[in-house]
TrEMBL record:
Substrate binds at D310. Its cofactor is pyridoxal 5'-phosphate. InterPro entries: Ala_racemase/Decarboxylase_C (IPR009006), De-COase2_C (IPR022643), Nsp_de-COase (IPR005730), PLP-binding_barrel (IPR029066). GO terms for molecular function: diaminopimelate decarboxylase activity. It catalyses: carboxyspermidine + H(+) = spermidine + CO2; carboxynorspermidine + H(+) = norspermidine + CO2. Its EC number is 4.1.1.96. This is Carboxynorspermidine/carboxyspermidine decarboxylase.
Amino acid sequence: MTTPHAEPQTSSAASPQIALETRPFSPEAVPSPAFVLDEAKLRANLELIDRVQREAGVTIILALKGFSMFSAFPLVREYLSGATASSLNEIKLVNEYMGVQAHTYVPAYRDDEFDEILARSSHITFNSWSQWETFKDKAIGYTLPVGTQPQAHKPSFGIRVNPQYSEVATDMYNPCVPGSRLGVTRDKLPDQLPEGLEGLHFHTLCENDSYTLERTLAALEERFGDLLYQANWVNMGGGHLMTREGYDTNHLIGLLKAFREKYNVDVLMEPGSAIAWQTGVLVSTVLDVFDSQGIEVAVLDTSFAAHMPDTLEMPYKPRIRGAYQEPVAGKPTYRLGGMTCLAGDFMGDYSFDAPLQVGDRLVFEDMIHYTMVKTSTFNGVNLPAIVIHKEDGSLQIVRQYGYDSFKDRLS
């Protein structure tokens, strides 16, 4: 079967600092559907991120909510010292596959999990003042169990603040909308950080640049400047898309150094998208092609709802290798449908240089970050296989899924 070919689509997401072109693989050489991670591209991202943390004197860690592909953690660990988690399951994944305690932030902690979270975390951030009041005695009084690994240490505790400033346009991803449950506004905090609270955490960016961070820091300092001087560490959360084309990394480095020196704090960052930005694809296959009331439809063996939910949530239109992003007059044009029975499981419309045929492979670009972590088995559809395109050009099929993966989510 052949893959349709068209003029390559350029993307503003290709960083000039990163060599994005690596030895290509054949889409026909992997199972379908399949997520395919490009190991060389991941390393290039990590090298850029490592330069930022070294030159700025900050600590950058992996956010599991954006990239939880633990088969790639050995490579990540070469550059990043830790990871942030937002559930006990993510914490365990950090412990097991990163080999470190987790930086933990959960919007609301469960009493029956908190003791284990204490034992497995190096940093714990509380989302509200009431959560701090609920757990502070247990947190402050915690001591490491006898026989704990030498590298483990008692967690440092912080609180998430809401600077009431964000440039995120989509409300679903904006933690500063009125009535947001994420973080504490200044009027709810005392003038002095209480005993046991050492850090402040904010997360108000989403795939933004360093100039957005600069304006955000101005709002943070205006409201929380007195508390910043009292803190030992500040976690700037995620959304710092430093591996994107045009991102001014030198400006970011200067900004972070100045902030760190002004307040004499350790600075942490936990990007999700930046780690795996432009590092992999989702390969799919055309299963059916037909006319529907004058519209040409192609049904795929993947699903926008189950395998690419961000395309419907954000929403955004994913790029397809060799396809025209918008319809082109006179070229074969198709509305692409997922394989579930959800009426809205479709994306359109794309044009191609040649008509699509059953069996053609389509390659969705940039489908590793915030995609793999959100997949579901709605309708019982199989999850895409996971493949690594190794730096030596070989393909490693890490995992394939079937009935047991669907059944295990149910009872």
